[in-house]
Amino acid sequence: MKVITLIGGRPQFIKEAILHQELNRVDVKEVLVNSGQHYDFNMAGTFLDIFKIKDPDYNLKVGSGKHGEMTAKIMISLEEIVERETPDKIIVFGDTNTTLAGALIAAKQKIPLAHVEAGIRMKPKDMPEEINRILTDRVANYLFCASKKSADNLKKEGIIDGVHITGDIVYDLFLKMEPYFNHDLIKKLDLEENNYAVVTLHRDYNVDHKDILKKILTNLSRINNELKLVFPLHPRTKSRITQYGLEKHLEGINVIEPIDYLNLMGLASKSKKVITDSGGFQKEAYFLGVPALVVMPDTGWSELIDEGCNILCNKNNLYQLAKDFNGRKARKNIYGTGDSGKRIVKVLLDN
Q1: Confidence label for 41 from pLDDT (cuts 50, 70 and 90)
Q2: Interhelix angle for 169-177 vs 279-288, to 10°?
Q3: What's the average model confidence in pLDDT over 147-170?
Q4: Does the annotation count 38 as an active-site position?
Q5: Cα–Cα distance between 351 and 349 in angstroms, integer?
Q6: What is the pLDDT of residue 27?
Q7: CA separation for the pair 272, 227 (Å, rounded)
């Protein structure tokens, strides 16, 4: 069997790394296509060493641009590759323009499409990512769901055929990387285990509006008076803080430069809680057994809210929830047992 895997960003590349190992284990020929949507593949050496990640067979180098323009460029180039390679299946991940482009080409060329992370739904329904994931699920032949909630979402939309609850491929990654988590920052920053919180903030609706960002930072400052905060500052957020003249609200907070996955996981693993608007970090907090305050109006990982592990918050209630919310352990392992990659490949081979 020959498959084309299409990726366009760092999170997709990491997920593909897990899948690549499993495809390679069963001698499936994989053609890796990087759309170049927003990632240059200069990954940390540890990822490269552990996963033996191969270079893409094709790099489309589409770069950034308007949604329609970007999707069209990927489709034009990918169609030529598909005609040249004649794959048996095409695999896409998540909810990017790259994902949608791959889905449309697979449908037009009548090639079975596998969607990893199918069934995730969140509001607002008109945001680009939500449109991409809904349209991709409509044409997918294999819908690999990270949780039962995702499968239930598909069922509500009348999508039943080809749905497989395989667990979360990112949990596979987490378990493989856990022995490499770096805890050095805890000592370096003079932190006391279970007596600090880790903050990440970067979403446009949180940082691109002065009044909203000011309110969030004011609440973070209040929280820091009672629970020490460590704040790896995203470049976008740093730029907005400077632009709006809000630097004084960071006084006393332990602001550090952005850190890589291994350092972030090590730092968060010993924290009391996490405050974030990152889709990935809120779920990784769950893997770590740390409650997360999710500064978003909605989340694709709503099962974590349902279970009481995480909680949604906003600029107005952030301080109070940071005081009151300590989360709870999920009653079951929501995202599988760390063998999602194997399960996905088995389905692809058996069907």
Answers
A1: very low
A2: 60
A3: 97
A4: no
A5: 6
A6: 87
A7: 9
Cβ-based burial of 86 (10 A; exposed 0-12, middle 13-18, buried ≥19): exposed
Write down the residue that tokens 């641009």 correspond to: 65
Q: Are 240 and 208 in contact (CB under 8 A)?
A: yes
Q: Given a cut of 70, is residue 20 above it in pLDDT?
A: yes
Q: Are 216 and 246 in contact (CB under 8 A)?
A: no
Query: Does the pLDDT of residue 15 top 50, yes or no?
Result: yes
Share of residues in the chain with pLDDT > 90 (%): 80
Distance CA 18, CA 251 (A): 41
pLDDT band at 46 (very low <50, low <70, confident <90, very high): low
Confidence class for position 261, pLDDT limits 50, 70, 90: confident
CA pair distance 322, 198, nearest whole angstrom? 12
pLDDT at position 49 over 70: no
Active-site residue, selected from the candidate residues 202, 209, 234, 249: 202
Angle of helix 128-139 relative to helix 97-109, nearest 10 degrees?
20
